[in-house]
Write a structure and sequence with these properties.
83% of the residues lie in helices and 0% in strands. The longest helix has 28 residues. With 54 residues, it is an all-alpha fold.
Length: 54
Amino acid sequence: MLAWSITFLVVALIAGVLGFGGIASTAAGIARILFFVFLVLFAVSLLTGRGVTL
């Protein structure tokens, strides 16, 4: 999931440099959403992992 987020971030940066504003903003939005989904899944996996007691 993090790899997809980084991929879309790189696409957004390249599109922004080349002047494709619409593509850049769309790719950046997708990267942001995927990054937050990754963070939520990471937090859930930390809380439900072995050896973690609450």
